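--- STAGE predict ---
source: upstream dedup step, 1 unique chain passed
mode: sequence only
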Amino acid sequence: MNHKLLIIIVLFTSLFVLTNCKTKNETKKELPVQPFPVTANSPATGNTSNAAQNISLPDAALNGKTDEVQQLLERGVNVDSRDEDGRTALMYAAFNGHKEIMEHLIKKGAAVNLTDNFGRTALMFASSGPYPDAVKLLLTNQADPNIADKEEHFTALMYAAAEGQTEIVRILITYKADPKLKDIDGDNALTFAQNNGHQDIVKLLQPFLK
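--- STAGE serialize ---
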């Protein structure tokens, strides 16, 4: 399967789960997420300097190209530069759990709580996948777990609960994510876990909502 198509499918699968978390008689609006821009591969030359000249910082971060990320930053690319959707390299790296790249970006001054055009943070993207180390890295660098996006007021905890990421939910709770926060329809992380059949997360969250 074409690499670009695969990334698009993964993105829509992970970020649209929340769209279907309502009861049978209710539906949520679709999340206005545009696919991440992706290059199929870094250039096929054996020269890493040439590779860095032909790949953008977001592409390199998304695809785990550590050397290219380092070279681009050394060439003066702004670590917090944004694409047309307002996303930074840290957000892209977080989406695929590329911890080493995330560490490098943060060391170079990447702001962990920046939001894209839809109000989503790097922590939200990391929390939708099985990336506990990436989530911990962001949280230990002052990522705010209670930021809600602009469209539906989803939080990182809601993303993790909807995706069945039990370990991520535990980590977020430990770092003071608020299970009582609700989206614009009055649903919380427990609702998303229940509607997606994630019973381990339901049991984990229930004590916080009594």
